[in-house]
Design goal:
- The protein has 181 residues and is of the alpha/beta class.
- Helices cover 52% and strands 15% of the residues.
- α1 crosses α2 and α2 runs antiparallel to α4.
- It is elongated and about 75 Å long.
């Protein structure tokens, strides 16, 4: 149709799909250098379409990176009395994380715990998550004044209690002391 200018967006999508986490900016530069070819074939990208692609290149890159980082998500179990009792009977090192999905402090604590697990893949620490909103009985049992409460147990003995602690060195030190590191 006259006045319509097809954009190379399909080409970008296939390039990104085949390149995986390749640098999307390089793909855009390559497409810009192909503009002469597109003009010769009657296909002309508009300024709007190129600006659109430039705007979304970082978004696409972020999505690819985020997806690859999810492979290192926190390994934790939902809290159950049965699992907690069994771990205590074994004398296992346990971290009870009283969290809420809407809590930014809890999210920061989660990042710290993910870092700990990534740096200590052979750690015997078991993380049990108590949902602040849905497991009120256990929030009260652990005397958690609010979400973002962390407790460490050496078997049945509570050895550490913290509220809203997000400093990596403090959390790592408490875990290290429990594990004799």
């Amino acid at each position: 149709m006259p006045g319509l200018h097809p954009t190379p967006s399909l080409s970008l999508k296939s390039s990104v799909a085949s390149a995986g986490s390749a640098n999307v900016c390089n793909i855009l530069e390559a497409q810009e250098s192909d503009q002469d070819h597109l003009t010769n074939t009657g296909l002309r990208p508009t300024r709007l379409s190129m600006n659109f692609l430039r705007f979304f290149a970082p978004v696409i890159t972020a999505i690819v990176l985020f997806t690859s980082l999810q492979a290192h998500a926190l390994e934790a179990e939902s809290f159950t009395k049965e699992r907690f009792d069994a771990l205590q009977a074994e004398g296992a090192p346990i971290l009870v994380d009283i969290y809420a999905t809407w809590c930014p402090t809890c999210a920061k604590q989660r990042e710290v715990l993910e870092t700990y697990q990534n740096e200590n893949p052979d750690s015997e620490l078991v993380i049990l998550e108590v949902d602040f909103d849905d497991q009120k009985e256990w929030v009260k049992h652990f005397k958690a004044p609010r979400q973002s409460t962390l407790l460490l147990f050496d078997g049945s003995e509570q050895v550490w209690f913290s509220v809203a602690e997000t400093r990596e060195d403090k959390i790592f030190a408490a875990i290290g002391e429990l594990l004799g590191q």
